[in-house]
Write a structure and sequence with these properties.
The protein is α+β, with helices and mostly antiparallel strands. The chain has two helices and 19 strands. The protein is 17% helix and 37% strand.
Length: 293
């Protein structure tokens, strides 16, 4: 069996086709064809698989299609044809390598303990890459700390920090990779408030706390005002009830009704017209002559 091509690469999300041919049979021979991946015992079905489609053997060859490929589709694929009780040799197979781009590229702002920027990539393959920082389109060569680590699935990820940075300047993190036609990048304008959506705004948090405190103080003031007003209404109602009682019993009480006036100069309710003027207050106690006896 001859596989065409022997090596093929693709980018995540693309469709890939590989072929195998058998020249020992007549072009119109009816043969059963089987496709499988190295390391797997089962073969791919022509009808059940939606992302891996094996076409029937026709005119001496068969096509195998990989739809919307992922990194897990990487490996070596073989085909074999069967006529009668035997199966033909599978040959050398076709090696498929799926590239995974490092996109999206994301810059975040770190404010503790110092203001710096952090550029992170998505998981990618293969591991070769090139990361460059720019400050207002000027390449930066110092203050960069880049770390790469490998995930269990065989993918790679990179994070790169930049310090120091200046407020008012635009910083760009650019990544080149074999899976990309053009380099991918992300930019960040350093401002006093920080980038919208990145990190936590301490100014906003402070305004929330201050607003909540003001609302709490206003609620307490309103509550005290209502309590004081209700107390004053109760006192007024008590005086009115006393006056009403004297009026009701006026015909039964001999002598006139008196009121004691108690003056008090210690409290002030409004500002006097002049500094020499004083405000005089009085408390009124009603009682009849009978009370004096």
């Amino acid at each position: 069996m001859q596989h065409v091509p022997q090596r093929v690469t693709g980018v995540k999300g693309e469709n890939i086709s590989i072929n195998c041919s058998a020249s020992l049979f007549m072009p119109n021979a009816m043969l059963d064809v089987y496709w499988w991946k190295k390391g797997q015992r089962s073969t791919f079905s022509m009808t059940r698989e939606k992302t891996k489609i094996a076409m029937p053997f026709h005119q001496g060859s068969s096509e195998f299609r990989l739809i919307n490929v992922s990194f897990q589709d990487s490996g070596v694929y073989y085909c074999g044809v069967k006529k009668g009780p035997g199966m033909m040799s599978n040959g050398t197979g076709t090696e498929v390598t799926i590239y995974v781009p490092p996109t999206p590229i994301t810059i975040t702002r770190l404010s503790s303990p110092f203001l710096k920027l952090l550029c992170t990539t998505a998981s990618f393959f293969p591991e070769e890459f090139n990361l460059t920082w720019y400050e207002n389109d000027r390449k930066i060569t110092s203050g960069i700390n880049t770390t790469k680590f490998q995930e269990k699935e065989g993918l790679h990820q990179v994070s790169s920090s930049l310090y120091p940075v200046e407020i008012g300047l635009v910083y760009t993190c650019q990544v080149s990779h074999v899976s990309l036609v053009d380099p991918a990048n992300d930019s960040y304008l350093v401002s006093d408030q920080g980038k919208k959506g990145n990190g936590f705004s301490y100014a906003l948090a402070f305004s929330w706390i201050a607003g909540g405190f003001i609302i709490l103080v206003l609620a307490i003031v309103v509550r005290l005002y209502k309590l004081e007003r209700s107390h004053g209404d109760a006192v007024a109602e008590e005086i009115d009830s006393r006056v009403e009682e004297q009026v009701i019993h006026k015909g039964k009480v001999e002598g006139p009704t008196y009121a004691d006036l108690h003056f008090n100069e210690h409290r002030k309710m409004w500002k006097p017209r002049s500094e020499k003027e004083a405000v005089v207050y009085t408390n009124i106690n009603y009682h009849s002559v009978q009370d004096q006896l």
